[in-house]
Design brief:
Layout lengths: L11 E3 L4 E3 L7 H10 L6 H7 L10 E3 L7 H27 L8 E4 L3 E4 L2 E4 L5 E3 L4 E4 L3 H7 L6 H19 L2 H9 L4 H28 L8 H11 L2 H8 L14 H14 L14
Helix pairs in contact: 2-6, 3-5, 3-7, 5-7, 5-8, 6-7, 7-10, 8-10
Length: 288
């Protein structure tokens, strides 16, 4: 990915020097659930909002911020993240403006180990996530090592896909889709809600594909093999593949919340090939 000479976003909030102190409520099962969900690459915003209250810190818990110390590798990753975020800003500002709408740029928070968000307390094990309550994307840069070594999805464009997917959730929030999901949660069964969650996540994948489309065609950021890296990442994090790893080959489709590997690849590819939000209407597509 040709990113080194590109614009860096100013919407980076570096909290890697922060440390959490005081008692934390909602550990154990609560954080385990978040960690398991986070392994699917980004957390359903409605799910965060639903359980976030149980994860709030209690007592005199505070986040103490200090200076950030980083290695040369971390510095490069920080700059890379800032470039990708800036490119998503350019992409969605242009699309929103073309539709007579105003795009509100999200903040991206860098943290280490644990962080307090408006959606609750989170640990790095849960992976990157978007919190609709404060309109921020959160990521611990160590996740990229897991992406390469544990999920078999190496490459800088795979890393960029992670950010573009979470920004896709921000776009859904701005469009009111997240609120609609939260409303539906009160009206449908868990199985039906899981199916809606799959459509939400596949749409975020499609939105990530739109970013890749514009990064390729308008800025020439994409090098040979980059799209394959993103497609491989999408494939590695399908519900079916992750469950097979965790459950010795056994899958439970009713519990899927993010889509199969084939579905995730399909919708990212669709966004990349079409390049328009209209092509990403997963909710009114009978066969996803």
């Amino acid at each position: 990915m040709r990113w080194q000479n590109q614009r860096r976003s100013d919407n980076l909030e570096d909290r890697r020097g922060s440390r959490m102190s005081g008692p934390v409520k909602g550990g154990g099962i609560g954080l385990l659930l978040l960690a398991l969900v986070g392994m699917y690459f980004g957390i359903d915003p409605a799910l965060i909002m639903n359980i976030g209250g149980a994860l709030q810190q209690s007592g005199q818990s505070t986040e103490q911020r200090g200076p950030v110390q980083e290695s040369a590798q971390e510095q490069q990753l920080r700059e890379f993240v800032a470039v990708v975020l800036a490119d998503t800003e350019d992409n969605w500002n242009s699309i929103f403006q073309a539709n007579n709408k105003r795009y509100q740029e999200p903040k991206l928070v860098l943290f280490r180990d644990a962080v307090q968000s408006a959606c609750g307390f989170a640990q790095a094990a849960m992976g990157p996530f978007y919190c609709p309550a404060d309109q921020k994307v959160y990521i611990d840069l160590s996740f990229y090592e897991d992406l390469k070594n544990k999920m078999n999805a190496p490459g800088d464009f795979a890393q960029a896909y992670v950010i573009a997917h979470e920004v896709g959730h921000h776009v859904q929030n701005l469009l009111g889709i997240t609120d609609q999901m939260q409303t539906m949660r009160q009206r449908v069964s868990q199985t039906e809600y899981n199916q809606l969650s799959v459509r939400l996540e596949l749409q975020a994948d499609c939105f990530a594909g739109i970013w890749a489309h514009n990064a390729d065609r308008t800025k020439n950021l994409v090098e040979p093999g980059d799209i394959d890296e993103a497609l491989n990442a999408a494939s590695q994090i399908g519900d079916d593949r992750l469950q097979k790893r965790q459950q010795r080959g056994y899958i439970t489709p009713d519990s899927f919340t993010h889509g199969t590997s084939a579905q995730r690849v399909h919708w990212f590819r669709r966004g990349y090939e079409k390049g328009s939000p209209e092509s990403c209407d997963t909710f009114n597509t009978p066969n996803i």
